Amino acid sequence: MYEEFWRESGDAAELVIPGWQTMSYFSDVTNVCWFLEPELDQQVRRLHRTVGNAAVDGYHVIVGTGSTQLFMAALYALSPDAAGDPSASSRQRPTTRSGNQSCLLGRQCFCCDLQSYPAVTDFLRSGLFRWAGDASSFEGDNYIELVCSPNNPDGAIREAVLASEPGAGGKTVHDFAYYWPQYTPITEKADHDIMLFTVSKSTGHAGTRIGWALVKDREVAKKMTKFVELNTIGVSKDSQLRAAKVLGAVSDGYEAKVVGAPRLFDFGRRKMVERWSMLRAAAAASGVFSLPEETSGFCNFTKETAATNPAFAWLRCDGEDVDDCASFLRSHKILTRSGAHFGADPRYVRVSMLDRDDAFDIFVRRLSSLH
Amino acid sequence: MYEEFWRESGDAAELVIPGWQTMSYFSDVTNVCWFLEPELDQQVRRLHRTVGNAAVDGYHVIVGTGSTQLFMAALYALSPDAAGDPSASSRQRPTTRSGNQSCLLGRQCFCCDLQSYPAVTDFLRSGLFRWAGDASSFEGDNYIELVCSPNNPDGAIREAVLASEPGAGGKTVHDFAYYWPQYTPITEKADHDIMLFTVSKSTGHAGTRIGWALVKDREVAKKMTKFVELNTIGVSKDSQLRAAKVLGAVSDGYEAKVVGAPRLFDFGRRKMVERWSMLRAAAAASGVFSLPEETSGFCNFTKETAATNPAFAWLRCDGEDVDDCASFLRSHKILTRSGAHFGADPRYVRVSMLDRDDAFDIFVRRLSSLH
């Protein structure tokens, strides 16, 4: 969807890298995140200040190869064992092994609902953490709760469901991939302990694989940096420079002194409003699909009331003879992701709202013809 | 060291990326490695054909965020549990937990000597694999041996030390980061099951974080791809295009029809010969340091006999009062990495031979003044 915008923006976000540039592993050895390009650090802070969706003062910026890597880095940093020396933790292992079975080996548990994160959490069978399912049915103190808001896949605004006493073992990670004005009104300047963002969802540059975390605590920031160091020895400099260029072009659009720069969030919101209206009309025309109700709020960025326009549609097949919505749609040449992947009823599917125009048009046309 | 070469090569390796390019997660959905840019695939194969250091026909190219990620991907792919469904393996866990303690939970073991890989292997405490120390003292069938040749840190040419019966559990991964003509004569076209390479060591572009694996078996290639998908959802497209451009410029230098293109391996070899000769002279002048003996062989690429010029010097302090060479050198303002990090005697240190000219000159001058 965003390709059209960037094609129209000319060379505002064009990047030129000479053969001899950014050859070193290091970007700024004085920074906690030593592989973060200073230009990206600046542009991340500038954009958050422009949009007002997250606090940046007093935060460390940690860059990752997409926000997936930072999600893992956060789990690593918040797991108590990761900090200490390995021999200490292997000494603990035997005594905790017989402990509470809802929390593997007595270690930090990770809780969240309706996410596609379990595979990422569990694929290495880490002894540090494991996926523990839906947070709302979790009991215990030793957990990491992932709060995804607006939520993937249903677009709902969420807050942590596990209230932890200060000083207890509970910790939260906020995935704010979709907390941008094209998807949702910016109702507050978020200031949680760990907040994750990505260019993939904010500007559309998924192939660049750049995410960033805003991290309040210096020790947590150091451990997350250590994870990325061990996992991939830092993050591509070329991609960081690209992301800095792209984020800079977005901020330019909302800077009074830059005249005529294209405005990404205006474009995105216009597109999303148009697409959601097409989709709702198609679902109504078919009579056999339903969608989450539209919600709205006052957006501090645009200074007007705006509807939520999620990047995914959480579509329900209401037809009585349809148990598996994804299969039903597949038989009509519509590819979606079954609700079952998100721990939900297979009568739900997740549909991307960010495809190219022609693909989205075909999808809507096919959907409206079903009944 | 390579920055000088790329500065002199003008715009041969300059990359221009318009704002709208490479936005998708996908590169080629028909390829096993669906996030590999076709241009990088081509340039990797072209360069290996030019140099003759590795077979590419019949191999899959898997791209990674540096070769570190591919090393982990290989461990994942070669661990028997990673393939099957997770429930099957957790059923096995209780019975294997009390098994052979030299191989954690009865799972695949990983063996290698004198490497800095243990931290990377163990940092997530994976239940799939663990670091098992020096391969030459390992007994058992269920292992993955890492063969690093030329070896880091001592530059020696190595072959697998664990001979496994065909069909048994033993597997090997060849790390060929330094198997390029500037460091060592190219004595054979390697054709092992999994071979790892990286632009960091071949062209000097460490900050680009691009490595690649040549993988013979399609199933292993698929599992390695799956690892990178779960770990970082693919690899930066921008970096891949950069690497393709750089590797293409290197091949151009040795193509008869491209006149006057700069020749990286000639530059690299000239530099390395010069630096090794300076270092040997300095060590001799001081009288208290020794270095591995120079070895040589016939290089099929240059068609002449050439010496090995490792990217690291494996320096020994011979002074009788020096137990810890790294501390001794640090007190004389020379920063090195202690042999202890590689499981070796702390009288050894590893010194990088690839720093910028001015830094290398200072190092050699300081070293020759010690006695």
Automatic annotation (TrEMBL), chains A, B:
One of its GO terms (molecular function) is carbon-sulfur lyase activity. CDD domains: AAT_like (cd00609). Keywords: Pyridoxal phosphate. One of its GO terms (biological process) is amino acid metabolic process. Residues 1-370 form the Alliinase C-terminal domain. The keyword NADP does not apply. Its cofactor is pyridoxal 5'-phosphate. The keyword Transferase does not apply. PANTHER family: BIFUNCTIONAL ASPARTATE AMINOTRANSFERASE AND GLUTAMATE/ASPARTATE-PREPHENATE AMINOTRANSFERASE-RELATED (PTHR43795), TRYPTOPHAN AMINOTRANSFERASE-RELATED PROTEIN 2 (PTHR43795:SF111). This is Alliinase C-terminal domain-containing protein. It comes from Zizania palustris.
